[in-house]
Design a protein that fits this description.
The structure is a homodimer. Chain A is α+β, with helices and mostly antiparallel strands. Chain A has 4 helices and 7 strands, in the order βααβββαβββα.
């Protein structure tokens, strides 16, 4: 049973970048690359941040709970970070994955650092379900369901979104405890 | 300029599983899931292994140097591992990425744990180039080049493959030094 609406946005746009960040130019005071959309934090999407990283929610009705962990430093690869920042990053990834599993019970978690389109280190942490639009393929693959079927949000997805809200609320405290 | 041959294998087959492993059933002596293709190591593809992880090369002429880091334990997610194994895993990922960058100078490195098709923890560490078949999309996306163009290996790819051989030879010593 499908209830109204929410067009699924094109994967290439939504899942490899942050659209709301894309729309705002970086500050002229900033020495970071003018063209990098991830060098300007989106305060609305940001769940938590410190000097090294920020966690942002990705509001995709078909992948409720999707988050990205973004380096505050403009580097392309994890091996560009200091050993301290690498350690923190990995602890954050594990803690976020754990909280996602506890709150959302996804069938699988996908964790990926690609950055081919936006070469500023960021990790996608994606809850996956066997009935989601792409499963068992990646979210960057062609959808398994028809575009018509993908244009509405299901009752199951609405329930998951409610749980995603709980996850998003719980995760800042978890991240803040990690050094 | 394109020289002969090597058909590009379907992404879904090659990049989300290990075909040569798929063909061999796991030992009946093993208590691990009979159906899991990653529970039986492929000795030909394995570059290095210890009690926790093994590193295997993925021979794809269009992505020379591609490797996978596979958990020796049949678990689905990184948060299922012990803290000790998690720490080793992350150090391995950084070290492998660094060695890949030094040896291959890719335009980007993609690092991903998906496992939707084979829910046994494994990481893809993929060198990416701006002229590869999928760039700037993921390797799980539809290719950017036509199938006709993708059926031959370019001179540039042959040169990269030679450097990939050097990378594959160097990486076991690097992994062995990490605890």
């Amino acid at each position: 049973m499908r209830s109204a609406v929410a067009q699924h946005p094109p994967v290439g746009t939504v899942l490899e970048s942050e659209p709301s960040i894309m729309s705002g130019p970086p500050s002229a005071m900033d020495s970071r690359p003018i063209s990098c959309p991830l060098c300007t934090p989106d305060s609305v999407a940001t769940l938590w941040s410190d000097d090294h990283f920020r966690l942002v929610k990705v509001v995709d009705p078909h992948l409720p709970g999707f988050v990205r962990l973004i380096s505050q430093q403009h580097v392309a690869e994890m091996s560009d970070l200091s050993a301290t920042a690498q350690r923190q990053m990995f602890r954050l990834l594990v803690a976020i994955e754990s909280a996602m599993r506890v709150n959302l019970s996804p069938d699988k978690v996908n964790v990926a650092s690609l950055g081919n389109q936006v070469p500023h280190l960021h990790w996608h942490i994606i809850p996956r379900w066997k009935d989601d639009l792409y499963f068992p393929d990646s979210i960057w693959s062609a959808p398994k369901r028809s575009p018509a079927a993908s244009s509405a949000v299901t009752v199951v997805e609405v329930e998951r979104l409610a749980r995603a809200e709980t996850f998003w609320k719980s995760v800042p405290e978890i991240c803040a405890a990690i050094r």
